[in-house]
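User: Hi! I have a protein structure encoded as tokens and I'd like to know what sequence might fold into it. I'm fairly new to this, so please keep things simple.
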């Protein structure tokens, strides 16, 4: 997940490098920007992600945190909704049947409210690396219970190359990371290590 406050290099460079190294999904989470500024940021991220994907001969998707209208205007692949945001079904109606619609959950049972979503984030599985934790870590047992509820679940919170295999073994469909990549001295190397752990 992309948060500019953590960046150690220019935004476009970080996105392009990360995607070229193996990131296949970028979430724009910029709570301080609204309207035209957020739209411009999303377009910049989309362009950088496409360059990175072209560099490795693959594809990358970009979703926008909370703002379905901005996702639509920017031509992004979808939106990621908070538990207090619009309903996933409403976002789906706005963005179309092929859009990615994500949903944030902080307990396995909260996933049941994600009717119409494509996937859910479950967080924090471990103590976050990018910020001080506001909630106690849920652990792998909660992740397994969440994954058993029928919706693909991305594990978020404290995910690194050292524990990525554990979360996949517990049932996660993938991982969502912030600090592991954005706080790294070498973003490309951090992505490759995480990608290698996941692919194994």
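Assistant: Happy to help. Inverse folding works backwards from shape to sequence: for each of the 200 positions I chose a residue that suits the local structure. Here it is:
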């Amino acid at each position: 997940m992309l948060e500019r406050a953590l960046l150690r290099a220019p935004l476009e460079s970080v996105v392009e490098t990360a995607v070229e190294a193996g990131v296949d999904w970028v979430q724009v989470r910029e709570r301080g920007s609204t309207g035209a500024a957020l739209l411009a940021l999303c377009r910049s991220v989309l362009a950088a992600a496409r360059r990175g994907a072209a560099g490795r001969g693959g594809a990358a998707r970009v979703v926008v945190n909370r703002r379905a209208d901005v996702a639509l205007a920017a031509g992004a692949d979808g939106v990621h909704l908070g538990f207090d945001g619009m309903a996933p079904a409403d976002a789906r109606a706005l963005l179309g049947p092929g859009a990615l619609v994500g949903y944030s959950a902080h307990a396995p049972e909260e996933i049941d409210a994600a009717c119409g979503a494509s996937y859910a984030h479950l967080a924090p599985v471990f103590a976050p690396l990018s910020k001080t934790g506001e909630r106690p870590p849920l652990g792998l047992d909660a992740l397994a219970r969440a994954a058993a509820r029928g919706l693909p679940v991305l594990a978020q919170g404290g995910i690194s190359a050292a524990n990525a295999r554990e979360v996949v073994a517990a049932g996660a469909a993938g991982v969502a990371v912030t600090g592991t990549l954005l706080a790294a001295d070498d973003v490309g190397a951090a992505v490759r290590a995480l990608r290698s752990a996941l692919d194994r």
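A useful reference point when you look it over: The chain has one domain: 4-199. Feel free to ask if any position seems puzzling.
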